[in-house]
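Hey,
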Amino acid sequence: MLMDATLLLQSIARHITLTEEEQARFVSVLQHRTIKKKQFFSREGEISKGPAFVTAGLLRSYSIDHNGFEHVIQFAPPGWWAADIGSSIRQTPGILNVDALEDSEIFWLRQSDLEGLFIKIPKFERFFRIISQNALAAHQARLVSILSLPAKERYAQFCQLYPSLIGCLPQKQVASYIGVTPEFLSKMLNTRA
């Protein structure tokens, strides 16, 4: 399984250095899962399974409001993490849905295994602190952009953050991410051309 986790281990190596023994211990607690397109990794109202690292495919995290509208919080292509963090940490019902927009492969960690890693290999606390800080900074920047930037600038930011997804996502998904209707996005893109 060590070879299967290569992308994940490379991601970790950008922030911490693990011995071969530490890598083997880490890989031994990983859970692997194939998620078919439109299947869920976790659902709103359920306790999150834990953080998931995408090795192939594409996940999205989103909520559904009381009117039935989807609000995409994040896309997770290969090399990205996805989770309902609050649910994972507190072991309470989640507020997000995480599903696959295409057939996907992930590795994920049970919260108890993650806590065990923090104790047995303290370097992992540093790693998860760094990625958590990066995620918090990104989410704060996104919140400010949603609250203060016009749709064209939010779309430009989306294109910068997810360049590989521009041509493969339906406009409905992109519109949900930038906080506009699909019709508005279509009209906006047509006036740009």
